[in-house]
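Lab notes, practical 5.
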Amino acid sequence: MKIAKFITDAEREHLKAIHKQLFTLAAEAIEEGDEAKIQSYLVRAAEKGLLQRDAFGINPILSDMETALVVGQEIGISRSSILSVLLNSAVLSGAASIDEIKKDFGDEVAHILHGLMRIRELYAKSATVGSENFRSLLITFAEDMRVILIMIANRVCIMRQIKDTKNIEAQKQVSMEAAYLYAPLAHKLGLYKLKSELEDLSLKYLEHDAYYHIKEKLNETKRSRDAYIERFLKPLDEKLQAAGLHYHMKGRTKSIHSIWQKMQKQHVDVDGVYDLFAIRIILDSPPEREKMECWQVFSIITDMYQSNPKRMRDWLSVPKSNGYESLHITVLGPEQKWVEVQIRTERMDDIAEHGLAAHWRYKGIKGGQSSIEDWLAGVRSALETNDDAQLMDQFRLDLKEDEVFVFTPKGDIFKLPMGATVLDFAYHIHSKVGNQCVGARIGGKNVTIRQKLQSGDQVEILTSSNQSPKQDWLNIVTTTRARAKVRQSLKEMESRQALLAKEELERKMKNKKLDYEEPVLMHTMSKLGYKIVTEFYAALADGKLDMNNVLEAYALQQRFDHGEAEKTAPATSADQFVMPEDEKAKRQIEHSDVLVIDQNLKGLDFQMAKCCQPVYGDAVFGFVTSGGGIKIHREDCPNAPQLRQRFGYRIVKAKWAGKRGSQYPITLRVIGNDDIGIVNNITNVISKEEKILLRSISIDSHDGLFNGTLTVMLDDTSRLQQLIKKLRTVKGVKNVTRS
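Output from the prediction step:
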């Protein structure tokens, strides 16, 4: 297959335009002969039939060319990065080896391409791209930060091209990855334009109606908004000039995605988001006059416009722990509209814009500790100065959890990882405090042990002498230190309970005149399914084993061991052995990234979601809750799109075990004519069905029609479909649907 046949006429015209832009942009970076060598590799790949379009039908050559253009225009890195992108398809398809690339283009290009290949391997290996650790793995596998920059650029190009795709499922998957993985990475690197485009396009594909609703509203109000900003700034500009201050001002409209987030958080429409734009006043002040001049601007603005004290943020007097300094106020401008104003100096703005206090961090996006700031500042400087050859090679990142700083009532400060709970803090203070923790008081309000801590919280731990550690506490704590202490306390409690259970067993043996014999007890434990003594006594202490049943089994085993032989089953040969179903399910879970749902499994805390009521046979997925348990949802659950978008890293694949589990509640909605006896006919159909139980029925009649809600208990989707089919045959019933 020739390369010409692999490209359509429309793609060829588009390719010519991009080619002209790219090689004009990179004329100084591309060496003589580079273009001819690249073309030879692509021709080889095409002739061997190795070039394949992706799930959206996108041509890989065109995709690489567009990615290279984005890299050149938006990121500005040089020859090695541009060539790596253009050779990407040839290498990933197997048409060219890394050694060949190294020989023809040098070590740097080969190194970047090796990183791109490793990223592809990571995607192939990882069952849950949305996992909490995937971003760390992504950067570790990349080896070179230029690989991450190329991945961001490529994702932007893909997002631009999938507007009209028919593969909606793939579109959603790519959009969710862009939102929770690549947009935050772009933000960290200061690639704000690409970050905003990724977020907006993700919203466009995942929340189509909301996106266009906001876009139309912004277009309708753009002219009036610009005019309003001018009216707001004109008198302010006169006052600041009269005060002899040196400054510049700029206004910015929030992105569509940012506005949508505000709407979700505040539960309002676009018109209710009063801070659609913000104004920054950036002063050119000497270091010794910075604070004084910032407060002078604050005084001028608040003299002119009424301020909202609840919306004031003073990071000037006490900078954020990450070094961010600024003064944020919200004032009531002309026409009684609220306007956010940010006051800072050139130095403060430089720090905020160049990584030492990156904007993504104070907006609450998860990131790393202080070491990440140095990395960001360096990478962003490299991007802005195009100094990538030596500087960029040294950057690799091990993403760690961010930090929160909390205070005791006495004012002592403690540092904990982001996501730490009240229980983590209690164990951080002392093991005894953790063991007896029942909650805390933060800001005058009582909170549970599950409450996540925020920087600046003053936390008073509440304890009770009646409290003791529970097994589910391991799902609440997030720090290694707290988890180790919980495990230690549980083990100590288990040992104490096991000792008491052992003493009680020996005492009851004595009462029944049974001699205590260690070998007999070991045989009894084995027959009861226990191999470890502590587990056996723990089961006795928890009530999982009945004491009387154990004593009967012990007495029987004692008679057997003393010569009263019982018949034993003949040994089964290997070719006749059949593994029990529950053991199969357990092994599936141990050796797979897929959660296998089996009601008989122990140690797995999962529940069926009430919002969609899945039953055996439904296509399902698992959602890890904040408490650590797993909720099982149907794939078509009405909440599924929002869960996947906002919490993609908590989604786990799930499937049912090879046999039915217990019965599940299912809600059916029945609509029909309000005829005499129709309800009786419906209940008769259900009562005749084997293994289906009617739990509740609610009927509402209006204007000759009835609308009924039935809750039935059944065990799989096949029975459900049979029941729906039969209910639809009842005279007078118009429709039966599953809620």
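Observations recorded by the TA: Residues 208-242 form the longest helix (35 residues). Residues 359 and 658 are 50 Å apart (CA to CA).
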